[in-house]
Amino acid sequence: MGYKKNMESIKINVMQKLLKANDAIADEIRNSLKNKGIFFINLMSSPGSGKTTLIEETVKKLGKKIKVIEGDIQTTLDAERLQKLGIQAFQINTGPFGGDCHLEAAWIKTAIAELGTEGMDILFVENIGNLVCPAEFDVGAHLNVLLISVSEGEDKPLKYPLAFQVSQVCVITKTDLLPLKRFSLETLRQNIQKVNPACTIIEVSAHEGAGLERWIEILQNKTGI
Amino acid sequence: MGYKKNMESIKINVMQKLLKANDAIADEIRNSLKNKGIFFINLMSSPGSGKTTLIEETVKKLGKKIKVIEGDIQTTLDAERLQKLGIQAFQINTGPFGGDCHLEAAWIKTAIAELGTEGMDILFVENIGNLVCPAEFDVGAHLNVLLISVSEGEDKPLKYPLAFQVSQVCVITKTDLLPLKRFSLETLRQNIQKVNPACTIIEVSAHEGAGLERWIEILQNKTGI
């Protein structure tokens, strides 16, 4: 147990140094994109909450000056979905690097260099589908957006508070499923407000189109585009 | 960058040592429970796929000789739900330890000591809701069961293969949502088989009761109880 404890303390020490190095790169990305008039949005959620669909709908409404960095452990499925809309999407696969459960600022910096910043006014990062780890790593975004589908349950903000606390906007997705769910939107809203009273909360059904105007309105307010 | 790279290699080295220490404790748990005639099942899934509900339904059908170790970052909500059924549930909160995204064998060992092994024939661990990290840590179970809800999309086995590969049984949940979803059960089944051809796949709607007999049948076959 002494060995295990010693290893744990080395792990924490190394992690703190990695987080510090990550934060410095994140700040550099944030400032550099701001100077170029590019607004950077980081989307986080559980697997399958609707991140790619929300980006697809956003591109359809706001046009082609959007680029996307896709984070996945395996596959380029999401980047392919987005390229069909005629926009540039760059896929980061963490699989070859131990299947990392989050994206780090250094990888975003490399991906931005590959994508190029010309002809872009909004950059989306679709983080790894995971309600835990991505919240711990600043990727340099100007806005963190958390998605949660009504299928996931009202208790998730209480059980995974950090992801809700680091986000300025929370999008409740798949509201078309509400007729079939024992689910209280009111309880979910209260639970989000308990852990992050300042969070802007909106509801969308991307497939039915409900709530998308409000999402675009918030984006235009935040980005000034 | 040299500093970052050096830190990364220290991180990997420390992680390998931690994983090795974890595996030794996991084997010890597996053997010790087997000798006592206790069958140990590890449930993994994204947040909100229905792990607690599946345990609740299992307890209702198989009786009170089940104990549960609940993994959550914050709250004791799930343990409280299970204690209402008159069974013993022990909550591990990883929040105070940096919000860890998975459970490790050492914590399970401590939790088993707290719960006691008398009067137990099945032990469930409900892992942290996360499709990435828990798959990397052996907790000493005799059976790994992965849950995926039809709301999460057919592509998840391809995007998060490890969780599907370390599991012997895959339970597709919330099939009562199928009428409202553009979702193909056939494609999900094919994708699971692509990454793990040996996996037993079943479909349940815990709320409607569909498929639960098959789940209990599999449990009884595996556990011999």
Task: Detail the topology: elements first, then pairings.
The structure is a homodimer of 225-residue chains.
Chain A: H1 2-35, E1 39-44, H2 51-62, E2 66-72, H3 77-83, E3 89-93, H4 105-115, E4 122-126, E5 143-149, H5 156-159, H6 161-165, E6 169-173, H7 185-195, E7 200-203, H8 212-223
Helix pairs in contact in A: 1-4
Tell me the radius of gyration of chain A: 18 Å
Largest sheet of chain A, if any?
7 strands, parallel
Residue windows where pLDDT falls under 50 for at least 5 positions of chain A: none
Oligomer: homodimer
Helix content of chain A: 40-55%
Q: Largest inter-chain interface?
A: A-B, 50 and 50 residues
| N- and C-termini, Cα separation of chain A | 56 Å
